[in-house]
Inverse folding.
């Protein structure tokens, strides 16, 4: 089940109004729709998704007592998890599984901000020691 993108609605961000993006859309037959400046209501679904992502990131940073400079990584985490979560509309398959037919391994998932430990071998430690 392969679907083609028909339209791309954006908020006039530089990455969407670049010649590269315009050319790609033209080649692929994608209609470019630009919203009016300072009018997020025209792109409600994306704005709501962004609000959910930022809310989750704030909660994770607060819950783990982490500093605000980790905000970008905290925003990446709920997106990463959501993209690997099963969807009812896809008969409880993940997006990747529906696309590739391969079941995803999520055994690497950990609680955001949890402590980790790793072992650095002696030869690697010596290499790091010479860095000033």
């Amino acid at each position: 089940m392969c679907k083609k993108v028909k339209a791309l609605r954006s908020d006039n961000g530089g990455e969407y109004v670049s010649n590269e993006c315009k050319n790609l859309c033209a080649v692929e037959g994608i209609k470019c729709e630009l919203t009016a400046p300072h009018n997020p209501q025209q792109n409600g679904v994306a704005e709501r998704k962004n609000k959910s992502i930022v809310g989750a990131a704030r909660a994770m940073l607060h819950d783990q007592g982490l500093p605000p400079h980790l905000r970008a990584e905290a925003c990446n985490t709920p997106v990463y998890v959501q993209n690997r979560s099963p969807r009812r509309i896809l008969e409880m398959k993940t997006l990747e599984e529906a696309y590739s037919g391969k079941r995803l391994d999520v055994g690497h998932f950990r609680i955001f901000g949890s402590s980790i430990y790793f072992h650095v071998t002696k030869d690697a430690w010596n290499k790091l020691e010479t860095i000033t």
User: Anything to note?
Assistant: The first helix runs from residue 14 to 17. The chain has two domains: 1-38, 40-132.
